[in-house]
Amino acid sequence: MGKSVYLSKGAVCACVVLAIAAVATIIGLAVVYDREKSKNEQTATPGPTSTPIPTTPSTPKEPWQKYRLPDSLVPISYNVTLWPRLEPNKENLYIFTGHSAVIFRCEKETDLILIHSNKLNLTLYDGHHAKLTGLGGATAPPLSETRLEIPTQYLVVRLKSPLKVGATYELFTEFVGELADDLGGFYRSEYMEDGVKKVVATTQMQPTDARKAFPCFDEPAMKAVFHMTLLHPHGTVALSNGMNHAPVNVTMDGIDVQRTSFDPSEVMSTYLLAFVVCDFSFIGSKPEEDVLIRIWARKKAIEERQGDYALEKTGPILAFFEKYYNSPYPLTKSDQIALPDFSAGAMENWGLITYRETALLYNPGVSSNGDKEWVATVISHELAHMWFGNLVTTRWWNDLWLNEGFATYVSYLGANYAEPTWNMKDLIVLNEITGVMGIDALASSHPLSSKEEDIQKPEDISQLFDSITYSKGAAVLRMLSEFITEDIFSKGLQTYLEEFKYKNTVYTDLWRHLQMAVDKAGIKLPNTVEEIMNRWILQMGFPVVTINSKTGEITQKHFLLDPDSVVDTPSPFNYEWFVPLTWIKNGGPEQQYWLLNEKDTNADLVLGSSDWLVANINMKGFYRVNYDSENWEHLLTKLSSSHRDIPEINRARLIDDAFNLARAKMVNTTLALRTTKFLDKEVEYMPWKTARNNLNYFYLMFDRSDVYGPMQAYMKKQVTPLFNYFKNITSDWKDIPEKHTDQYNQVVAISTACSAGVAGCKELTTGWFREWMSNPDNNKISPNLKSTVYCSAISAGGVEEWDFAWSMFKKATIASEAEKLMDALSCTKQPWLLNRYLEYCLDPQKIRKQDATSAIVSIAGNNVGQPLAWDFIRANWRHLYNEYGGGSFNFGRLISGVTRRFSTDFEYKQLLQFKEDNAGQLGSASASLEQALEGTKANINWVTLNKKEVLDWFNNEASSTR
Ligand SMILES: *[C@@H]1O[C@H](CO)[C@@H](O)[C@H](O)[C@H]1NC(C)=O
Ligand SMILES: *[C@@H]1O[C@H](CO)[C@@H](O)[C@H](O)[C@H]1NC(C)=O
Ligand SMILES: *[C@@H]1O[C@H](CO)[C@@H](O)[C@H](O)[C@H]1NC(C)=O
Ligand SMILES: *[C@@H]1O[C@H](CO)[C@@H](O)[C@H](O)[C@H]1NC(C)=O
């Protein structure tokens, strides 16, 4: 699956610089926390006072009580016909009907057929839910009993005598299911077009919802060929994995419909199936191309040419991967479709990729360059899966990290090919790696790789879709590709894909092929690929490597953000890693060395009195670096004298490492703050963005205290040159900077400058906004700058600006535009406007239910709005819980979002009180409440420990002339 929304936000919106990165981390934390909690619940004793009941571990006795299919039967092919109804029936229910025949072979003698089926009503034949036929001369044994086993989602078919080994049979079922709006299985999506409600029938099977569309052996290793047929209303089109044939007119149950059949699929897994019925239109590649590429979307969106960018980039990205994998695109066509309702970012269904609209459509006049980058990377991610994941599939979900981590890593290579000037290969550090390090530094993190037997239930599988899987997976595969070289990495991939095409693997199969490529190329490694990688995937976390430049001593240690946290997850490697250490000394060539133990010495790392050294070049390795104080001083001197001698990524890393080492009490906070001093000369994006992300915590802790004034004065001093730089290169804000990352950094410059009160900034943004207000039909604000300009103008303005933005929000027809305005409305400094906006959040006519939580969280992100939002939540908890508690994932964000600033005993007590008052009414928010309590405590400690030091430092800096 493409990344979920929470990842997309963190990665893309360079706009609301402060708030969003933090939200991404918090949600990431919530996922980790949930995992930890469920892990504990499984092993927990019932209560503190009761004696532990010796739990009869409910080891399932019967095959149908086990979540995994037995290996006695293997599917060969399916023949499935489905008919979704796009209008409700008499009971006001949207349904689909269908029938399916699966041909399977008996591999081991058995008198039991288990096949997945969930939420389907099956037709009875002679009292049984299915019909069995023998093929090729085999006779089918009579059925003795059929029934549905709800917990494990099986149709259970028991036979009077066993099936014959080697024989093939056909099992036929007919069924009715609900075409619900639940975003899983075969579901419906609705949207308005020209005042008419339109219904789309579409699918999301991954991980375990194909069984909700028709009975099937729903495990990734149960690959088969699928013959699909769809019945659909006149005026609609039907799509599936295989190419659609011309529709035929038929009459079914007295209704005239069209019947579309499809080319049979390749041998494939059920979770990659897709079918869609809609009245969309498309744009396609030229007929002379080898592979037919079609981009599908709402008619309006295609008319407005919003699919053009996706069409333009799909061909080149496919060509890139054909070369990278040395393997032709496995199918004859590639359909990609943008859906109005879709839960993840996108889904790599083989031949019919489904997307959120924001992940496939791009609107040049309206969307920002961040929106465009998102489209390019998501397309690249999904196309990478067409081989890695679809052609060759891991055997079970415990290896999901390999599938998703890999696609995440190579999506940057594909996007880099499609947009060579964007620096995508560097941006992976900021977009994926920096953020996930924050999560993986918690004691409650988890290893990338899980054991097959630990992942059983659908819930176990769903929990794996977290940022560790995607982003850390990408980081360690990138590290591997870097130390064996990208060329050898792709050579290993090529033989891996060749050996296992149309089959299934475990992750060690990839290591074996990479090892073969390494050996063939004669690359020297200190251990095998498998031994090295085991350290990174079988234990959680990552090391901090400390270099002593006086003695040449190098040590490694498990990095924990909270040094007092207790790690109770045991590691097979005692939290030691094989670390590919790289460094540059005095701007010389890059050097490499393997740190294989906890401690080592290397004379090359000893420095003379004026030497400097920076390690982990371009963040190729997944670890942090600390130095002795002399080298830190030399690095700070270097940064302030000629910062460009240190590579851009490493300038950003020095900031990020220092701030995180300070949180972990390994360096003092003053040192971290000093790494931002050179920013008055820095014009590149990555260092600035990294500094902003890290300083965000200081704003959260101190923007209501006496530190705020001097901190603002310091920021103003630091950002003024950057603001002037952009003013200059854009000829007084008239041009768009040429470089992609400059476009991002221009946003950082304006948002930082305006919030720090740089002269001319507010006037600028307010001026642009005023111009729009005087001519509402002609918004001339550059798309990249919209978020920050809206926010800044509304923050500086009053009710007039607010009401104008509100009316534009209500009128917006493009989702991303509405989102930007909705966020900006929370930027006002007027308490009464914020309170009114909070009230609007409870009125679904004003703020859609799906958006209420994020609006409240944005309001709490504003320091004036924070106490108002907290009061509001407390006053309305019961209502919020009843009306909004269902959309569980977002609901937890409410608590974490509103309590991010909490850092006093008084606030801690309020939280405890809130917990007591609402016991039993917290639902999915209870995990985030516990986390908020923990976080508040950590904040109290941090503020107590650091406030004076921070205040003194900012005071000193603010008063010193440069
Ligand atoms: C699939 O079933 C239909 C009848 O529902 C039949 O006409 C068709 O030949 C079958 N296709 C295959 C490939 O078995
Ligand atoms: C399935 O059967 C149940 C029980 O009769 C009924 O309540 C439900 O509406 C049926 N579902 C569909 C989609 O027809
Ligand atoms: C199928 O039905 C549609 C709508 O009734 C009609 O326009 C079309 O000509 C028919 N096609 C054929 C091949 O009969
Ligand atoms: C921070 O560390 C530096 C060097 O280790 C030291 O000189 C300085 O006094 C420390 N500052 C504080 C406030 O502890």
TrEMBL record:
Subunit record text: Homodimer.
GO BP: peptide catabolic process; proteolysis
Comment on bound cofactor: Binds 1 zinc ion per subunit.
E.C. numbers: 3.4.11.-
Region (Disordered): 38-65
Segments forming a coiled coil: none
Magnesium recorded as keyword: no
Enzyme's top EC category: hydrolase
Residue stretches making up the ERAP1-like C-terminal domain: 612-937
Descriptive protein name: Aminopeptidase
Organism, as annotated: Xyrichtys novacula
Pfam family, one: Peptidase_M1_N
Any one GO molecular-function label of the UniProt entry: peptide binding
